[in-house]
Amino acid sequence: MPVSCTVVVPTIGRPSLGVLLDVLATAEGPRPAGLVVVDDRPDGPPLDVDRPGLPPVRVVRTGGGGPARARNLGWRTARTEWVAFLDDDVVPDADWYARLDADLAGLPADVAGSQGRVRVPLPEDRRPTDWERGTAGLATSSWITADLAYRRAALAAVGGFDERFPRAFREDSDLALRVMDTGARLVRGERWITHPVRPVDRWVSVRVQAGNADDVLMRRLHGPDWRERADAALGRRPQHLAVTAAALAAVGLAAARRPRAVTAAALAWAAGTAEFAWARVAPGPRDRAEVTTMALTSAAIPPLATWHWLRGVVRHRRVAPWRGLPDLVLFDRDGTLVHDFPYNGDPAWVRPVDGAREALDALRARGVRVGVVSNQSGVARGIITREQVDACMARLEELLGPFETVQVCPHGPDDGCICRKPAPGMVKAACAELGVEPARTVVIGDIGADVEAAAAAGASGIMVPTPVTRRQEVAAAPRRAATLTAAVDDVLAGEW
């Protein structure tokens, strides 16, 4: 039986996506349960993903949130044991499906991820350029998500990719370190992809210096030994700092009218820049275009690398561990999602509070599952019937749905059940139904019983008080929000 797996492909709409989909449509081996294509463009026409032979395809959109957010939406959309990430510019081998299935089948429970193998084709008729050599480094890199499968539970346990990494750089290494910090292992499989060198303009090496700020974030999160643990080379930052210091010294000494010192500093800058340029030119094709590009960019890179590093030092001087979004948000019904009409059994009186639909849709758009946990003691009191409760819940889903779980307690306060809030039964049942850990769950409600049920289940609680909420309950709530919209905004900001 094939391994339960979903393939996730984030994309910004590059033409290479079509090549990837063509290969996946004809590749040999058992098809995964689904293919999630995450459109990370801010806008644009629908993607062309129709290919006979593909597994069931679902396209979701981030609105341009960046690679970390795109991958997070992809795995949150998946419902399988494994999630296999592929970049949109790679070409899997013809037997990729079969080898993926073989790589994942029977892995011990302590293995959280399996990395594929990467080949980068370089020109055969000349030496590679600086950019081509840099891309070739992907073939020996560790834990890159060009082809990396994770257990979905492992991703959920650490909150997925850290969205504070704004570009496709270091976010995969950060995830791997956090997963391994839980005691899990990552292994290498036997499946292969080809990663072509995409065409770029001559200034690409200047733009990628922004990644120096991300290196600062890595150090803040993982300590000074993060490079060794992530198998990431230091690069030339010390030399860049020295060359930049020489340039600044020359400018300062010129202002101070010290010509001999200016000459010495300028020579130091020139020597450092020339050494850097030659180190990049020597192994390459040495044609006029490459030499010119290396000369220009080698002068620009040291100060830019230093600037981005300093920017990262300032921006990331205080950082907390990444928590990510919860996997599930459970809402109380009456007084939270809809206006409270006591013991309501009439669907016509199910009236959402302001912003309820927008708040729920904002969670769904980020891949967070939503559900309802509602005390309905009117059934036990004989005021309403269970059929009326179900009719009102159906109307709720019609107005605000869909909900992935709906839990109702029909018991009264003296029945001694384990489901009636503040007991944790409904919260635990919802988590069990969806396979979600209570620790990755948030409960939003309007009274103390809601947040107490969350705490008893091991979940987080947020109270949205109404005018009838008791003051002592409001004071005792661990986290409060003025409105339902504000509560959901806090959740989406990671404040839960």
From TrEMBL:
Question: Keywords for this entry?
Answer: Carbohydrate metabolism, Cytoplasm, Hydrolase, Metal-binding
Question: Domain of life of the organism in this record?
Answer: Bacteria
A Gene Ontology cellular component where this protein is annotated is:
cytoplasm
**Domain Glycosyltransferase 2-like, chain residue ranges per copy:** 7-119
Q: Where found?
A: Cytoplasm
The UniProt GO MF terms for this protein read: metal ion binding; phosphatase activity
A Pfam family this chain is assigned to:
Hydrolase_like
Which terms under GO biological process does the entry name? carbohydrate metabolic process
User: InterPro entries this protein is in?
Assistant: Glyco_trans_2-like, HAD-like_sf, HAD-SF_hydro_IA, HAD-SF_hydro_IIIA, HAD_sf, Heptose_bisP_phosphatase, Histidinol-phos, Nucleotide-diphossugar_trans
Please report which protein family the annotation says this sequence is part of: Belongs to the GmhB family.
PANTHER family recorded for this chain? D-GLYCERO-BETA-D-MANNO-HEPTOSE-1,7-BISPHOSPHATE 7-PHOSPHATASE
Q: What is this protein called?
A: D,D-heptose 1,7-bisphosphate phosphatase
Q: What is the lineage of its organism?
A: Bacteria, Bacillati, Actinomycetota, Actinomycetes, Geodermatophilales
